[in-house]
Design goal:
Oligomer: single chain
CATH architecture of the largest domain: 7 Propeller
Radius of gyration: 36 Å
Number of domains: 3
Helix content: under 10%
CATH topology of the largest domain: Methylamine Dehydrogenase, Chain H
Number of strands: 49
Number of helices: 1
Structural class: mainly beta
Shape: elongated
CATH superfamily of the largest domain: YVTN repeat-like/Quinoprotein amine dehydrogenase
CATH class of the largest domain: Mainly Beta
Length: 617
């Protein structure tokens, strides 16, 4: 005790006696009282006293969000994923396994696509190969020799056209015959767009007839033509000019059908270029382009039918190569054998649809995904290592998949104690038969499934939580949605924010079955630095009898003492408060004087002053 034992307490070095009956000390509540003012009940209606809950029941707005629960966060988004299907609202499940569809190809310019909506073609070295990629686990494709390595190909529905950099080649659709050289144009890029056959060689772009002869449209622009694609009202040519992508629009005259001189429809930022002949696709007024920075979605302006406005680049996977729009989904390919998928019915910001990494090797052993195509609702893609991959023929699921939720902070920097987690799974994977029809079930037995399927999990689902000390703890989720205690290996359950990753793994026996998760929850208790409120009833009288047996009289100039305390409160000054052997930093928050009389000299009141103190963390 640093102050005189004759007194009870000391505030900022000044000693006082106190009224014991009115002394109070308590911890201040960690949470303020809340009221639910929303129109409907929900998680916000439940009491948060003692436990805060973070739950996800919808992942359909896709990846690209690093923090799950900041003020401006979207609770149906997450950070990243791979080999997880997020596109059924209200659940996540494993994607199909990826399998190689043919023996290794040449690795040169493997571009895949559908001809007449049903015949699957892809270029492989000097061959155009075709067949049904979904007919068996591994396919022997038919092929047509093009005489030299194919740089691009297209079809008018009757014939196949390819470019080799030295010539334009032609062969019938579904023919194994060798292609013939047509005309003399040495094209690098070719596309049958809006009923016209266009080809480009460097900066020069021309229209060809079916015999390969150059038509009236013959223009030389700046830079190098990378890709050509038809749009609703114009044909688009993607050029790279001095390290910058420039998109040209070529319109068709309504009077004589001639092609107009190319005009600039859009320009990429300096340093961003178009990637491959397969790096542009359109559907209606939506355009997707693959660039050296990533993928961009564009909107074709209805005013002129040709100008394009691009949204921000999606650069999660780096440079994008092959792109494709099929139905309501868009696909693109990046490095390491990774394909991506986006839902064009859901946009999370201007021209950014809900997206995620989809079928993904995610390893440097695999090449750049040069093209993506959809056949029988299955995704197939080629890579720069000369491989054609697709979803597993037998329906096997990916061995595992992961979804990185991102940082969970419960919307505050205050410390939290993580207590438990849980998950709910779909009844689709229960393995039980359908519910028994009450009209036909004549006898009840314990095996009769009157209630229908119950939720369960095949395979495994784990939630990995990484705390502030970079210690990761993985916890397996149970079938019944029971709470599972969080038990980190370092026993440190507290933290400001937690990085959360969900891992799904298929069943070890039935490889076509795996977990279908409909919810996960993370439960924590707020644990901010706690403060205490101390109510100190200070006796302010002109003459008092000191305590602790001293019996010595003491007195105060009560007005001076009150003014000193009031100055501490006014300035919010941090001072030392002492009582017995305890000493702590406090601020004087409020004063309340209860008078019993005037002082003998009539200068001010005497009585008891309630001093409200708050400890300083």
């Amino acid at each position: 005790m640093a102050y005189s034992q004759a007194f009870d307490v000391a505030i900022n070095g000044n000693t006082y006696l106190i009224d014991y009956d009115n002394y109070r000390r308590r911890t201040v509540a960690a949470q303020r009282e809340q009221r639910d003012t929303s129109a409907d009940v929900g998680e916000q209606t439940l009491s948060s006293a003692g436990q805060w809950v973070r739950s996800i029941t919808d992942w359909s707005r896709g990846a690209g969000q690093t923090h799950y629960d900041l003020v401006d966060s979207d609770r149906a988004r997450f950070n990243s994923s791979k080999n997880v299907d997020i596109f059924t609202k209200g659940q996540i499940s494993l994607c199909k396994a990826i399998e190689s569809k043919q023996a290794a190809g040449s690795g040169a310019n493997m571009y895949a696509g559908l001809v007449n909506g049903s015949v699957f073609y892809f270029s492989d070295g000097q061959y155009l190969k075709y067949g049904n990629p979904d007919a068996a686990p591994t396919i022997t494709f038919s092929s047509s020799d093009q005489g030299a390595a194919v740089t691009d190909w297209t079809s008018d529905g009757t014939d196949m056209y390819s470019t080799t950099g030295a010539a334009v080649k032609k062969v019938n659709v579904s023919s194994t015959g060798a292609a013939s050289t047509i005309g003399s144009f040495a094209g690098d890029v070719i596309e049958f767009a809006n009923g016209r056959l266009l080809s480009a060689d460097g900066a020069r772009i021309v229209e060809l007839n079916s015999s390969g002869a150059v038509q009236t449209f013959d223009k030389t622009l700046s830079g190098t033509c990378i890709a050509i694609k038809g749009g609703p009202q114009a044909i688009y040519a993607a050029y790279n000019v001095a390290g910058q992508g420039v998109l040209y629009a070529i319109s068709v005259s309504s009077s004589d059908g001639s092609l107009s001189y190319p005009v600039v429809a859009a320009v990429l930022p300096k340093g961003e270029t178009f990637s491959k002949p397969t790096s542009i696709d359109t559907f209606g007024d939506i355009m997707i382009v693959g660039t050296s920075k990533g993928v961009r979605f564009g909107s074709i302006t209805p005013n002129d039918g040709q100008s394009v406005t691009f949204g921000p680049v999606i650069d999660d996977g780096g440079a994008a190569y092959g792109v494709r729009i099929s139905g309501k989904y868009a696909y693109w390919g990046t490095n390491n054998g990774n394909s991506w998928k986006a839902d064009l019915t859901i946009f999370t910001q201007f021209l950014v649809p809900a997206y995620c990494k989809f079928l993904a090797h995610d390893h440097t052993d695999y090449g750049n995904v040069l093209s993506v195509e959809v056949v029988n609702d299955k995704v197939f893609f080629t890579d720069s290592n000369g491989e054609l991959y697709g979803e597993d023929y037998t329906g096997d699921l990916s061995t595992n998949g992961e979804l990185v939720v991102g940082k969970v902070s419960y919307g505050t920097v205050a410390s939290k104690i993580l207590r438990s987690m849980s998950a709910r799974f779909s009844s689709e994977q229960s393995g039980e038969t359908a519910a028994t029809d009450y009209n036909t079930a004549l006898d009840y037995t314990s095996e009769t499934n009157y209630g229908g399927n119950v939720a369960t999990v095949t395979g495994t689902a784990t939630i990995a939580v990484t705390n502030n000390k970079n210690t990761t703890t993985s916890t397996a989720m149970t079938t019944g949605g029971d709470e599972v205690a969080y038990s980190p290996t370092d026993n440190d359950v507290a933290g400001e924010a937690f990085d959360v990753t969900i891992t799904l793994a298929r069943d070890g026996t039935t490889t076509t079955s795996g977990p279908i998760m409909e919810r996960w929850s993370l439960n924590a208790r707020p644990q901010p630095n706690r403060i205490e409120e101390i109510i100190v009833p200070v006796i302010l009288q002109g003459r008092i009898q000191t305590s602790a047996g001293a019996g010595a009289p003491a007195g105060y100039k009560t007005l001076d003492e009150y003014n000193d305390l009031r100055t501490l409160a006014k300035n919010a000054q941090v001072v030392t408060y002492e009582e017995g052997d305890r000493s702590e930093s406090v601020s004087v928050e409020d004063l309340e004087m209860s008078a019993i009389r005037f002082s003998d000299d009539g200068s001010w009141w005497e009585g008891t002053c309630l001093v409200r103190l708050l400890t300083v963390p």
